[in-house]
Design brief:
By secondary structure, this protein is an alpha+beta fold. The protein contains 24 helices and 20 strands. Helix 5 crosses helix 6, helix 13 runs antiparallel to helix 14 and helix 21 packs antiparallel against helix 23.
Length: 668
Amino acid sequence: MAELFLELFSEEIPARMQRDAAERLLNICKDVCQGLAPRDGRVFHGPRRLAVVLTVDTQKPGQTREERGPREGAPEIALTKFMEKFSAARSEIVTENGYFWLRRREEPVGAAALILSALPAALADMPWPKSMRWGQGGDFTWVRPLRRIVCLLDGVVLPISLGPVSAGDETEGHRVHGPGPVRVSSAQVWEETLRAHKVVASQDERREAIAGGLAAKAGELGLTVAPDAGLLDEVNGLVEWPVALIGRIGAEFMDLPPEVRELSMKANQKYFALRGAAGEPAPYFAFVANLEANDGGAAIVSGNERVLRARLADARHFWDLDLKTPLNELLPKLEKITFHAKIGTQRARAERIGALAARIAGDLGGNAEQARWAGLLCKADLVTGMVGEFPELQGVMGGYYAEKAPQGWDGAVVGPAIKTHYQPKGPADAVPVGAVAVAVALADKLDTLTRFFEINEKPTGSGDPYALRRAALGVIRIILENGLRLPLKPLLGGDESLFDFIIERLRVKLRGEGRRFDVLDAVLAAGADDDLVRVMKRVEALGGLLGSEDGRNLHAAYKRAANILRIEDAKDGPHTAELVLGALPLPEEERLRDALPYIEAETLSAFRQENFELAVAGLASLRATIDAFFEEVTVNDPVPELRRNRLRLLARFRDTVNIIADFSRIEG
């Protein structure tokens, strides 16, 4: 076996592209080395380099290649095309079993020769979201100018070329601490050499060093770093030798909303926010330098504090300016913002959201007037200076402005409702709580869904440009996680297709959680129900039943009964008349007949009281009775009267079970 090591050293690669590029590079190398049994692949990625190390066999073994061609007697052109496809000579073609065959002996190929023949072209075709040409590279493109290639097979250089760059055994260390070329002979030597020249090659080790360094620096001040995995990943792609530092935020900026400070820090400067012992924002920020300064980083910290001060001064300007105009006075400006050409303006949308929010809040026992205000004002911050500078803060800023300058509304209620009305923005995001906040968030999402469905702008398999799937999932999560007893269909304007769309998102949610979505289908098929909380209670109860031995056997008995009825109903059915009273030939059929009306009544009563656990427990109690019936009773008795009555028993059993759910929809 041999070690293949490849490093592509370039100018700075955007952090967001590095991970995927490294995986693509690994896959390219595996494909090129397919005949060499590639294994033990590892990738490295950082600001200026991508690298792959693979274990491969030293040669591709020889083999006889066989490919079946056209039938004997096929047109000559068919054979010609077949030969062209494999660059075959006529002497390599034989006939056997009515077909032309290509049989070619392929000799063993050494690893070096195989890699040299295939790797350059494969690398040249490596896709990038964006790429560039430079210097004397001709038509060759790469994400950034490529400077060096290291390509080694067991320490021996494989002289591949990409554009103007040819492979060798030299890499480069840190720009400041380890500049210039250094020789390497293996992946291990490469990693150790880079470390000696102030480059941490492993992205995982670098990430741990960043997180640990930041935590240690913050801990010296009794602070903690606000969690931000995305920012940590981004910074990891910006530095080669991470050095954590702490700067101070001016006291004059600490009364700004924390979201304003922290977004300005993160978006513009890649700074981390810090928290005090109680979780409160601290007047400090953390960041990562890419070098060890002689002064311990004092000048770097000072420079970054100066830059942040200017950024926050801009934010202060927008904050003070925006507060001069109450939100309700901004509503006329929303008339100039088109939400969608076929739907109308943001002002019209705000009016609709306000009205629907008031209706929902009233249904939930909340303050309808405050909900109307919150819905009406929830888009007003779109025309503020702060949101113009930081679009990510829409909603959040409106909430702060509503709290700071209430004009006829309760800022303590309306402000938080506006802040959270876009939530949940993703699967990990919290849902709003409280009647007013919930009402506004639901109204916003329901208005989006109903309006786009009205103009037939529905998601397709290839796209969802208006994020309607996310809106539907948001509606589901808000309702379920708040336990809202809120009939959904009246809020959808009677659009059954939209209700079906929301239910489909519920199916997807259950599937993603590893739960049975066929149980949901079974519950909904048993009768229309647009109360999602009640639906999920039924799903949970039925799922619990089907997870038990009694439930599984009951389901099996149901399927047996349904199959018999399907066949026999086609002959002379349906068999749904009243059951025969009095003595029956067999005690097993008497016990089933006597049990069914009682279980049916108990199930219906429990169902009406929404005690679904009791309802399914009643059904489970039928298990032994129906099992005994099938063991001892011949349903298709030669006596017509007995057959009809036994089929009616099975129909009554099927219909009793179907009170809870349509068991025919349950898989398994």
